Amino acid sequence: MYKRIFFSSLIIFVFVSISGQDMANISDYPDRFFFNSQFDISSLNSINPEKISDHPLGIETAKRLYLIKQTYTVTEPGTLSNPVEKTVILKPLIYSSLLKLNKYYVKEVSEHNLDIEKASRELNYFLNIGLALIHENTESFEQVLRKAKKPEEISEAYLRVVLN
Description:
The chain is mostly helical. The protein folds into two domains: 1-30; 37-163, no CATH class. The protein has helices at residues 2-28, 59-72, 92-110, 116-132, 139-147, 151-159; strands at residues 33-35, 73-76, 86-89, 161-163.
């Protein structure tokens, strides 16, 4: 009986300690957005190359953009009164910000303001964050994105995201 109480107390103590440490870390960085999600990079290997189109920043970027479109858009079938299919965008602020960053990096590379490797690395980083956030509560992050109009402001917002 005493062993059971002792172990229960120990488990509760460890849980509270860990939770307290996480909360202390979050309060140390009020300008950051913490999410407990990661993008599984192995899912890129399962994409059929025939389904993706060429991208100026390479095949890896093309695969991520394909996954973004597959993840963030849902096609609803038509109804009897309106037989046209309807495309619904989940988290439209995140989706549109990622597309804006894509357009920005492609333009910067085409105008020779940025080399392809650096542009690809940066855009892929932001796309990975976007893929990780699909099932997260992102209201506070979306408020920052709502204010960010320029690509530089959008990328700054994504740099504030911390994935655990």
